[in-house]
Every structure is written in structure tokens, then in C-alpha cells.
Design a protein that fits this description.
disordered N terminus; OB fold (Dihydrolipoamide Acetyltransferase, E2P); Elongation Factor Tu (Ef-tu), domain 3; 6-stranded antiparallel β-sheet; 6-stranded antiparallel β-barrel; 3 helices; conserved putative lor/sdh protein from methanococcus maripaludis s2 fold; alpha+beta; 4 domains; single chain; 29% helix
Length: 371
Amino acid sequence: MYQYISKNKKSTLLAAVATATILVFSACSQSGQEKEQAQNTEAKPVTYATVPVQLLNPEYEILVPAELKPYEQVAVYARVTGFVKQLYADRGSRVRKGQLLALLEAPEMEQQYLSDKSTEQKVYSDYLYAKQAYDRLAEASKTTGAVADIELDRAKSAMESAQSAYEASKAGAAHAAQLQQYLRIAAPFNGVVTQRNVSVGALAGAGTDTPLFTMAQGDKLRLTLSLPEKHASSVKPGLQAVFTVSSQPGKTFHAVLSRTSGLLDQQDRSLTLEFDVSNPSGELQGGDYAQVKMKLQRKNPSHWVPGKSVLATQSGTYVLALSDNGIKRIPVKEGIRLDTLTEVFGDLSGNEHIILKPSEEIPEGQIKKQE
């Protein structure tokens, strides 16, 4: 009985030792496999999908808001102070250049004109008398010793003085006559009266800030828009525009570029464009808002990359260029977008290959090559 138990214990001990040995060899084998796998992983090269930078000059289309304005618009004031005697136009009146809009009255101005005209006639008579006296002395001086030289000089001086007085009086009378003409308020151009701000009997002129009328030219309009800075270099002479207005849905109008501001506005960094629009039938109205469609093209080709290859970070906007020297971050500024492509400006030669799907985790510098 005792012997049997001893043998049994010995067998159990041998089995335990064998099991421990197997576990040790298994652990060593697993550790070796993990090291080998880690070595293989470290040796595996990092690869990135790349695309070449393209040098293109495509034509692209933009849609921008604009405003139709009267070609000419003015507030009509009275040049002299007077009372409104008669009105010949009202809001909505279509008038021609030079047409009488209103008539003012200023009795004191008429009296001033009559006084200046009377003075002019008197001074003119004095001038004629002085001239006749000089002419007689000049004729008599042809006889030697008949007239002293000093007398002739005195007569000439009197004549010239009278002539100057006459010219001054004549100018004064012309001034008074001109002021009288200012009592007639005429239209400065062909257009429509948009506002009438006075009534008969109202005081008009220098003492008031209210214009008599407001006028606008309706047969010709200005289509004005602000073009963002990134499109400014694409504007060329003869630029065509197609526009629509909300008051006439479904109808399109055409115009050709007439002028630009030449400089970017410092407030919103935009270039102002103006298109002259002929409107003889009055179909369009000044003040309408419009949507303008234009086709633009750069003056020179520029660099383009896929939009998803541009990396925007808090520190700036970049593309990642991959070459034999490794990965390099190149700062860029985005231009226009066309389908899946984006225009970029930066230190690019055009021969770079750009990582298609960049991320901030991709480091700059050398990358491991496959051995």
C-alpha cells in the first residue's frame, strides 16, 4: 500500500516537470515569432499615393451679384435764391435736355439788372466822349505845335480809363443778366424726374438744402458689380456678361465690359466692374438687383492640384511634395476651384508629385526605402 502511493507521487512529479518544460519552449518560440514579426513590420517601407502638379489655364465661369444703376443721376438745385413761381414737371415726367422744369421769381434781381444796365449805358457814353476828344486831339497834333504832347497823353489816358470803366460795367450787367437766367431751372440731360420736393411759392436756392427735383437717366444704365480679389487678374477688355433680374424671371440680358476701377477696394478687397447697358425702351429699371454670369480666364497658366491634396491646418495651408529627398511641406494659397481641381499658388516648379491624401501625422523629412 505504501509503495503504491510513493510511485504515484513520483509519476505526478514527472508529469508536472514535463508540462513546465513544454510551456517554457512554447513561450520562447512565441517571443521569437513576435520579434521576427516586429522586425518585418519595421522593415516594411511606407508608401503614399501621389499625383503630379498640373500647369493649366482653363476657362471658368462665375456667378456674382450686381446692381443696375442709372447712367446719370443728379439732384437739381436752384443756383440763386428765389420763390418757386411755376412748376412744369412732376415725379415720373420724362424730360429732354434743356427742357424747362421750374421758374423762380426774385424781383430784386430784376431791379439789379436794370440798374446795372443803366450804369453800363452811362459809362459807355462817357467812353465815347473821351474817345472822340482823343481822336480830335490826335488829328490836330498832326500840325506841328498845334497841340502839346502832354495834352494828347492826358486825353489818351482819359479815354483808356473810360474804356476800362465801360468794360467793368458791361461785365456787371452781364452778371446780372446771367443770374436772371438761373431763375429758369432746366433739365441737365434726357431722363425721368424721380422726385419733386417743392411746391409753388416755396423758397429755393442757397438758403435751403432740399433739391427741387431728382433726375435719373433711364435710357442707359450702369451694371455695377464687385469682383473678388482672386478673380481680378482674369479680367480682360471686351469681357462679356450675361445677367438676369428678379423683376423679369426667365429673361437674360447681355452687356460688354466698359470700365473698371483699376484698383482693389481696400475695404472688401474687390475690383469694381461697370457694364454700360442700353435701355431705349425702358425695359430695365435703375435700382434692380441682378445676377451676372461671366466666363473668365487667367492671363497665364497656373498650378492645379486635386482639392483633397490640399492640407489645411491651424498653422496654414500646405501641400506635401514627395521626392527622392523625402517629404516636404510647401505653403500654398488657394485660388479658384474647378470640379475636383484647386488652383494653388506657392513655391512650386510644376514638377512636384503631391501626396493625394495628406494628413498632419505625416512627418517631413526622409522616409525609409525598401532594401
